[in-house]
Amino acid sequence: MVASTRFTDKILTSTATLHYSNSNTPVSGPLPGGPTDEIDFSLNQARSIRTNLTASGPRPNPQGSYHYGLINITRTIKLVNSADQVNGKQRYAVNSVSFVPADTPLKLADYFNISGVFRVGSISDNPTGQKMYLDTSVMGADHRAFVEIVFENHESIVQSWHIDGYNFRVVGMDGGVWSPDKSRKQYNLNDAISRCTTQVYPKSWTAIYIGLDNVGMWNVRSEFWARQYLGQQFYLRVYNPVKSLRDEYLLPKNALLCGKAQGKSS
């Protein structure tokens, strides 16, 4: 087994040999090829990971054959990460907004309809080209919408994105800038894998399909923890005006309340 780094100035490689206790056969053949910083190599490798639709067959709807490619997209969201300084301090952002926490947990503020904590729509669906600024960024979304989200990375490092509360299908990724006409033609609309975290390679994009079937206030964030802490995150508010236990349970009676929610009754 050979493990090696990717996209680093100094290439680190480690090897190991695994064998059964009663095996006397030595390792044969050359070691696998060395590390490469070619993005196309990693893109092709990532795109080769597919769902096995023949598993657990035969039956009309084999394991993993969720027909996500036949569902109409109701909205496209394009998210671009960036790095800059705000007020002389290093910050990171999504669509020019660098997230700052509020004094009250956003879900509590939403549950109790507390004003002044956040504003739905404080982050745009698309990059604005504005200079980076600070805000408690919350994007609104309709319950049961089927959404295309494009993560576009203009930087020279690998990005990793996570969405709380959901799994999604990674339908496409490639180098350069995403375009609706060209990029969608290479989407995998049949057997993409289901994930909650995805990578975006340097100077590249990744597209996902996600069905918003889970009401709530969900964090969308960088898994590069320093970047997340310094603003590369926001909240996706999946909302249904019809309050129903079918969609979301009530707040537990023993929930800890703080900030402007302190003293509220559930």
TrEMBL record:
One Pfam assignment: Cu-oxidase_2
- Which SUPFAM superfamilies does the record cross-reference, listed alphabetically? Cupredoxins (SSF49503)
Q: Which GO terms describe its molecular function?
A: copper ion binding; oxidoreductase activity
Q: Plastocyanin-like domain: which residues?
A: 103-241
Write out the similarity annotation.
Belongs to the multicopper oxidase family.
Q: What is this protein called?
A: Cupredoxin
The protein's organism comes out as: Corchorus olitorius
The major lineage groups are: Eukaryota, Viridiplantae, Streptophyta, Embryophyta, Tracheophyta
